[in-house]
Amino acid sequence: MVFCLNTCVKIEKNNWLFVKQLNTFLGLDLNRYQSGKYGKGDTINRRGSSQGRAVETDMIRSMLRNQGKIQNHLVDYYYKLKKLPFNNHDKVVLIACANHLNRTIINLVHTHQLYNYSKAIH
Asked: How far lies 27's CA from each of 19, 36, 75, 105, in Å?
């Protein structure tokens, strides 16, 4: 993840890095197709860094494995999306958590803070 952030910062030079730019770099932004009344379901773009997507999904999976040791609001968000009536597929929920992780990382970088579970919105 640090590699992706460093690469994005080098691409942007002196500008701030935003969540949409990071999602686009990783290929996590959504494609929507609509023609008349027909609307296709949202899919991720996949034009970005496949290694970056793999690193982010591995980070989410490791957070799920370590949920007994470390409290994390992303794990709470994962189980919220997996609970009924949503009951989404695992990969869909992992991509949603990756988007949430990107928002959290960018916010922490912009505000110069460390992650604190008690301050995070649950």
From this structure: 12, 27, 22, 17
Burial label for 51, CB within 10 Å (0-12, 13-18, 19+), is exposed
CA atoms 33, 38, 39, 40: torsion sign: negative
Entry pTM? 0.77
- The C-alpha atoms of residue 40 and residue 32 are separated, in whole angstroms, by 7
**76 vs 119: CA distance, rounded Å:** 14
pLDDT by residue (tens digit) across 87-100? 788 888 998 999 99
SS3 8: helix
- The span from the CA of 54 to the CA of 72, in Å, is 20
